[in-house]
Amino acid sequence: MNRTRRLFFALDFSTPDNAQAKAEIVTLKQALSPLGHPVPDDNLHLTLAFLGNVSQQDYVALCRAADKIDASAFSLRTASLGYFNKPQILWLGIHPSVELQRLAETINTLSQAVLNIDKGDTPNAPNFLPHISLLRQVKPGAIDNTKDEYKEGISSLLTVQRFGLYASAPHPTRKGVQYTCLNAWALRIATPKHLSELPPNSPKDDHEF
């Protein structure tokens, strides 16, 4: 029997650099908790590509393809709240980011190639809407009854230094789901250019290399 696992590529925010931002997101989630069922703190993430059920062979191929991704670390800032009507999810948005969009497109492209699926079959490939799910089973219109200070969301700075491939499975307690990181890839840290590499008339600071 060919065992499969439900997989997705995502960003998590469990690194020390994101401790303050994650705490701010958790505080917001707790303040909104009367509206629905809060997502567990450990499950907070930003999905880059949802893959569905994947075999072990395809998992290995996905990892090998991801090994070749060359992208730099970058920062994100959270934005206002949003709502998905059909799954009844209340989420925290992300301000537009060229780096995030590029990384998501790269991962979706390699996933399509490895899994041999059409672009339209990957849910967030054509219309990528970055978000962090906060609450589930939120009734339509509930957000309209929240305090104005919450409707605007929060502006927290997140540092993206890695992305991972995760498995989603029923929680051992049979309540909700549990996400497990199966593999992770570090993003390249940009290094400052030496003065000799800067183009003519570039601004220079007071520091010497």
Protein architecture, described:
The structure is a single chain. Helix content is 22%, strand content 33%. The protein is α+β, with helices and mostly antiparallel strands and 209 residues long. It has a single domain, classed as Cyclic phosphodiesterase (Cyclic Phosphodiesterase, Chain: A), CATH 3.90.1140.10. A hairpin with a 4-residue loop joins strand 4 and strand 5. Helix 2 crosses helix 3. The C terminus is likely disordered.
Query: Which class do the helix and strand fractions yield?
Result: alpha+beta
Biggest beta-sheet profile: 5 strands, antiparallel
The CATH architecture name reads: Alpha-Beta Complex
| Distinct helical segment count | 4
Extended strand count: 9
Mean pLDDT: 85
Radius of gyration: 19 Å
Q: Might you state the CATH topology name?
A: Cyclic Phosphodiesterase, Chain: A
What is the distance, rounded to the nearest whole angstrom, between the alpha carbons of the first and last residues? 59 Å
The CATH superfamily is Cyclic phosphodiesterase
Write out the strand line-up for the largest beta sheet, numbering strands in chain order: 2-6-5-4-7
Overall geometric form: globular
Which segments are poorly predicted (pLDDT under 50) over 5 or more consecutive residues?
Answer: 120-125, 195-209
Helical percent range?
10-25%
Total domain modules:
1
Order of helices and strands: EHEEHEEHEHEEE
User: Given this structure, which CATH class is correct?
Assistant: Alpha Beta
**What percent strand?**
25-35%
